[in-house]
Design goal:
alpha/beta; Spore Coat Polysaccharide Biosynthesis Protein SpsA, Chain A; two-stranded antiparallel ribbon; 9 helices
């Protein structure tokens, strides 16, 4: 297997408990995300990556129901969980898709896979792109290297092991439409207001088909108040991420 989308999800959320199982648009949140990512074209497989915690059994049932692969691994060590999935399914290139990013854009995922084939980066990020529209791309060999150098099992905020160690070839996602670079829209599910935002967008635009990011932006342009439903939560979200970010590497690996 060459290209795989890793949907990273667990039922251990505290701000919005069991958010992956909340009803959204006639299905659970995680089912909606799975179905959305089936619109990616440059992809060999979708793999749901969850934990060995019994509380996450329901997520495995949903993966089976939706005919996608799944992997269970560490609850706190996201890097090791991904490494286990990459090894089990022989994945070369990974694009991660968080289980709380309901509008993560399949077209951007396709761009990442195409970029891997063209320039062979270790890690792809998309700074400035709408929060929740794209997560990261990771070459599996780089993922294995990150697992070798880390000196912690807390890798929830995992990007720093790639971006701040000077060991990897980092690239920005290329060919992204300029209109996708926005710092005033929040598309991730952590708070009730986020759910209100997603429901409002779906109510305005759902026609039974995949709602593209272009269409989502058209809805917001027509009714800009929609982005204000939850955006005031963004700084709190960013502060929380910063406080949880840990970079610990083994002494025998230099970052110079």
């Amino acid at each position: 297997m060459n290209n795989a989308i890793f949907i990273t999800v667990r039922n251990g959320s505290t701000r919005l408990p069991n958010k992956a199982l909340i009803n959204f648009n006639g299905m659970t949140v995680i089912e909606y995300i799975i179905q959305r990512h089936k619109n990616a074209k440059v992809c060999d497989s979708i793999i749901l990556c969850t934990t060995e915690n019994k509380n996450d059994d329901s997520l495995i049932d949903i993966a089976k129901k939706n005919n996608i692969n799944f992997f269970r691994g560490s609850e706190t060590d996201k890097l090791e969980r991904w490494k286990g999935a990459a090894d089990e399914f022989d994945v070369k290139y990974i694009v991660t898709a968080d289980g709380d990013d309901l509008f993560c854009e399949p077209k951007l995922i396709d761009l990442a896979f195409e970029q891997f084939e063209k320039s062979q980066p270790d890690f792809i990020q998309a700074n400035g792109v709408i929060c929740g529209a794209f997560t990261y791309g990771i070459k599996s060999d780089a993922l294995r290297k990150a697992c070798e150098i880390k000196d912690t099992s807390n890798t929830e905020m995992m990007w720093v092991f790639f971006t701040q160690t000077n060991l990897f070839k980092i690239e920005e996602l290329q060919k992204v439409p300029m209109k996708f670079y926005r710092n005033d829209i929040r598309m991730t599910l952590d708070y009730k207001e986020d759910l209100d935002f997603f429901n409002a967008i779906i109510k305005k635009g759902w026609s039974g088909n995949y709602l593209t990011l272009d269409e989502i932006l058209e809805i917001i342009e027509k009714e800009p108040y929609l982005k204000d439903i939850n955006f005031y939560r963004q700084q709190e979200f960013l502060n929380n991420q910063k406080n949880k970010t840990i970079l610990k590497v083994k002494d025998n690996f230099s970052r110079e």
